[in-house]
Each structure stands twice: as structure tokens, then as C-alpha cells.
């Protein structure tokens, strides 16, 4: 993702790299908290299923957004 964000036009490159960095830090901060609550409520199988669904949705969304640019 970082490689793709640095391939953007110079005007958009700074914003793309900043958004990537921010999303990494937000994910590292909120991921364990949210995953902990999900695993406490439904177990590890539910936690990993939800995580897989979120990752699949993000992958499809990212792919479609990259095709537009």
C-alpha cells in the first residue's frame, strides 16, 4: 500500500502517505481493543471471522479505489 501511495501525483502524494500512516496507527490502537471485546463476547472464532470479513471488505474497497486513479 505504501508503494501505491507514493506512485500518486505529487500534489496527492503527501496526503496519501499521511492517510496511510494515520490508518496504521489507528488500526494498531483500536484493533486490540475491538478484538478483545469481540473475543470476550463470542470467542476467538468469531473474532477471526469478523477480522477476515473486515479485511476482505477493505481489500475490495482499496482495489476499486486504486483502479479509479
Automatic annotation (TrEMBL):
Keyword Kinase appears in the UniProt entry: no
GO molecular function: transmembrane transporter activity
Transmembrane domains' residue ranges: 45-66
SUPFAM superfamilies assigned to the protein according to its UniProt record, in alphabetical order: MFS general substrate transporter
InterPro entries: MFS, MFS_dom, MFS_trans_sf
Pfam family, one: MFS_1
Key words, A-Z: Membrane, Transmembrane, Transmembrane helix
Domain Major facilitator superfamily (MFS) profile: 1-69
Name the UniProt record assigns to this protein: Major facilitator superfamily (MFS) profile domain-containing protein
Organism: Telmatospirillum siberiense
Amino acid at each position: 500500500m505504501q508503494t501505491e501511495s507514493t506512485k500518486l501525483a505529487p500534489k496527492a502524494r503527501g496526503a496519501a502517505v499521511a492517510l496511510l500512516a494515520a490508518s496504521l496507527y489507528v488500526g494498531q490502537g483500536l484493533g486490540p481493543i475491538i478484538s478483545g471485546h469481540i473475543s470476550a463476547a463470542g470467542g476467538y472464532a468469531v473474532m477471526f471471522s469478523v477480522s477476515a470479513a473486515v479485511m476482505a471488505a477493505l481489500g475490495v474497497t482499496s482495489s476499486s479505489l486504486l483502479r479509479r486513479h
